[in-house]
């Protein structure tokens, strides 16, 4: 399986913060935002990752993450010149995906919780599509999934005025290779975007969509507004200071997953010692 991080868009809901800097490069407490979805994909066992961003931001992402060799991974980059919808990621990434299965995660989504790694690895070989439902207070902002009395998904609606449930679809999706042809076949929405909801609907109509409800012990944070951006930073700060463990630490994930060895981790840690981040990595070795 390969992975895609969609880190494009204008970030206009966060202007003026994002007028000069990509939202996904902004800090969530002690790390750039993109570290969190990147760590999630790496935790899933995915080591080949395509980062899709804007022409202006591409050099900055390359400066931050390079080609991924330092983490035992392989990163490639592609451009989404205009925000034409999440599903366009599969068209942009068609050559990168090849004949593989693929996971898509949004660059501004953070996942954390007990059992998350096991859950992600269970979806490594999807037959069809696998998405999640997450109970939220304000489902109007999201794609919403409706279940029947047996717990089977029966409908998906993007940003409904009258939501049929409180279960939003978080920004991580697992698909088989058919997703590329499905993305190429869907029509742009009224917003002139290729909607990920339409991809999920296509899988649902084929009887190939699995929707699982995320456990209460797993947190999903969306950082698309000023308040949610601040809440995400506060959440990470509280957990890290209380537990002494980091969230979204890509170097730690690479080490614990066996992508890099002790000497490689040490080489990553040494330039970061002054910030305390490197000291945390050195303690992993000890």
UniProtKB/TrEMBL annotation:
<protein>
    <recommendedName>
        <fullName>Glucose-1-phosphate thymidylyltransferase</fullName>
        <ecNumber>2.7.7.24</ecNumber>
    </recommendedName>
</protein>
<keyword id="KW-0460">Magnesium</keyword>
<comment type="function">
    <text>Catalyzes the formation of dTDP-glucose, from dTTP and glucose 1-phosphate, as well as its pyrophosphorolysis.</text>
</comment>
<dbReference type="Pfam" id="PF00483">
    <property type="entry name" value="NTP_transferase"/>
</dbReference>
<dbReference type="GO" id="GO:0008879">
    <property type="term" value="F:glucose-1-phosphate thymidylyltransferase activity"/>
</dbReference>
<dbReference type="InterPro" id="IPR029044">
    <property type="entry name" value="Nucleotide-diphossugar_trans"/>
</dbReference>
<keyword id="KW-0548">Nucleotidyltransferase</keyword>
<feature type="domain" description="Nucleotidyl transferase">
    <location>
        <begin position="2"/>
        <end position="236"/>
    </location>
</feature>
<dbReference type="InterPro" id="IPR005835">
    <property type="entry name" value="NTP_transferase_dom"/>
</dbReference>
<dbReference type="GO" id="GO:0046872">
    <property type="term" value="F:metal ion binding"/>
</dbReference>
<keyword id="KW-0808">Transferase</keyword>
<comment type="similarity">
    <text>Belongs to the glucose-1-phosphate thymidylyltransferase family.</text>
</comment>
<keyword id="KW-0479">Metal-binding</keyword>
<dbReference type="InterPro" id="IPR005907">
    <property type="entry name" value="G1P_thy_trans_s"/>
</dbReference>
